[in-house]
């Protein structure tokens, strides 16, 4: 069973040494453990095919550069390790997490000369409920008190988001939708967001820009490229919270979950989950691209091949 269950299966490599999940361990002085001093990437694999591996490795290096963490391994070395673990497991849908910490150091001060540590997790992806993709999600809007602008590095500090998700669940929501301190919509907990509005035959598809304070998602980039190739207009645009009522549909996108419709943001109801929604056309476009990448169509929730 995967990481969403009580029993963990899969493989974890620490600095190249492979362990079963119950035997994997790092130093108690690891700065990733002590201070969240680490960067990481999450990838998804279907069978032995990892989607967008090169793009994830490029972003890993960009995140590391943003926190002055030098990664001593080449992309070829990292790619080989990830692929070899996935090949050993041969999962219908695999969850891959590649993490690089700054290494050991008890004091908060970064002294330099630390020896980075890499940890690669390859495990069965958690099975999403079927109704997630059929019915969609309800999002609770929250304000993130963060004045920084521009694209965010993918670091290991997610406590604020974890607590926000807990509060949202208590209030009967499935997810959160962050706004920055200026009231601009940014992103969900671990996903980017797209909004759709239709006026007659005109379809508007927009997504928040980097300057609103988002992580530039790999799947977000893929969707924008696919829409542009299909001659469907899509734009990066600052979106304020009071603009939400003008949108008819919205969806989240992330590496492991893929594309998920949104049926409600606070009290604003959306029509994204309907069979004839514009979102379903975008979803089919994405599914066709995935099938081209891995050689067959899949049920995204389970990773099992489908005949459609």
From TrEMBL:
Q: Which cofactor does it need?
A: pyridoxal 5'-phosphate
Under the heading PROSITE patterns, the entry gives: AA_TRANSFER_CLASS_4
Gene3D superfamilies according to UniProt:
3.30.470.10, D-amino Acid Aminotransferase, subunit A, domain 2
Can you provide one Gene Ontology molecular function annotated for this UniProt record? branched-chain-amino-acid transaminase activity
GO biological process terms on file: carboxylic acid biosynthetic process
Which pathway does UniProt place it in? Amino-acid biosynthesis; L-isoleucine biosynthesis; L-isoleucine from 2-oxobutanoate: step 4/4; Amino-acid biosynthesis; L-valine biosynthesis; L-valine from pyruvate: step 4/4; Amino-acid biosynthesis; L-leucine biosynthesis; L-leucine from 3-methyl-2-oxobutanoate: step 4/4
SUPFAM superfamilies on file:
D-aminoacid aminotransferase-like PLP-dependent enzymes (SSF56752)
**Catalyzed reactions:** L-isoleucine + 2-oxoglutarate = (S)-3-methyl-2-oxopentanoate + L-glutamate; L-valine + 2-oxoglutarate = 3-methyl-2-oxobutanoate + L-glutamate; L-leucine + 2-oxoglutarate = 4-methyl-2-oxopentanoate + L-glutamate
Keyword terms, alphabetized: Aminotransferase, Pyridoxal phosphate, Transferase
InterPro entries from the entry?
Aminotrans_IV (IPR001544), Aminotrans_IV_CS (IPR018300), Aminotransferase-like (IPR036038), BCAT-like_C (IPR043132), BCAT-like_N (IPR043131), Class-IV_PLP-Dep_Aminotrnsfr (IPR050571)
**Similarity annotation:** Belongs to the class-IV pyridoxal-phosphate-dependent aminotransferase family.
Protein name, UniProt field: branched-chain-amino-acid transaminase
What organism does this protein naturally occur in? Planctomyces bekefii
